[in-house]
Design brief:
The protein has 166 residues and is mainly alpha-helical. It has 2 domains: 20-77; 97-147 and 154-165, no CATH class. It is 56% helix and 4% strand. It is built from 6 helices and 2 strands. The chain has helices spanning 4-10, 13-46, 50-63, 65-74, 80-95, 154-165; strands at 97-99, 106-108. The chain has a two-stranded antiparallel sheet. A hairpin with a 6-residue loop joins strand 1 and strand 2 (106-108). Helix 2 runs antiparallel to helix 3 and helix 3 (50-63) packs antiparallel against helix 4. The longest helix has 34 residues, at 13-46. It is rod-shaped. Bound molecules: zinc ion (2 copies). One zinc ion is lined by residues 125, 127-128, 130, 139, 141-142, 144.
Length: 166
């Protein structure tokens, strides 16, 4: 094995040129591989479409920096994780709301009467008196069975109205 000082003194000007060219080559190879790896990781996080994944990676391998530019333009805007959280958020929002059984407008869980059609849209629990979702068969607050507690409906609303008139 040649010691480093010996190697340096043995190098002629031509060797230096060759060495620096090699250095530049190695540098760009590393950049190139890093870019392909980055694109590969990014595309896997953004789409499950295998064709798109392969295309993006091939593009990065063939065109490198230009492939990256094209990829940045056509890639999906959101990562899979971002879309997942957005969907979950949307789902949570809609789960906290129901629709009025009469006019089908959105009805927050704490509403007893529909603000749009003024119908009694939800009935309280017979035991704890808290408002129950029309989807529950058991009160979520006290565990009482909904039993025969009817769901509010049109005829009932009309009945109570006519009763009020009398
Ligand atoms: Zn309504
Ligand atoms: Zn209850």
């Amino acid at each position: 094995m040649i010691a480093l000082p010996e190697l340096l003194t043995n190098l002629t000007a031509g060797d230096w040129l060759g060495l620096s060219l090699k250095g530049v080559f190695v540098y760009f190879s590393i950049l190139w591989v890093a870019l392909v790896v980055w694109v590969a990781r990014d595309v896997v996080g953004r789409t499950r479409n295998l064709v798109f994944q392969v295309l993006a990676i091939v593009l990065a391998i063939l065109l490198n920096i230009f492939g990256l530019l094209i990829y940045l333009i056509v890639r999906p805007q959101k990562t899979l994780l971002e879309s997942y959280y957005e969907e979950a958020e949307q789902k949570a929002l809609t789960e906290n709301e129901e629709i009025c059984p009469h006019c089908e407008s959105p009805l927050p869980l704490e509403f007893r009467y529909c603000p749009h059609c003024s119908a009694e849209a939800r009935l309280p629990c017979t035991k704890c008196k808290k408002l129950m979702s029309n989807n529950w068969s058991t009160c979520a607050y006290c565990g009482a069975d909904r039993g025969n507690a009817k769901k509010p409906n049109h005829s009932e609303k009309n009945k109570s109205k006519s009763a009020n008139k009398k």
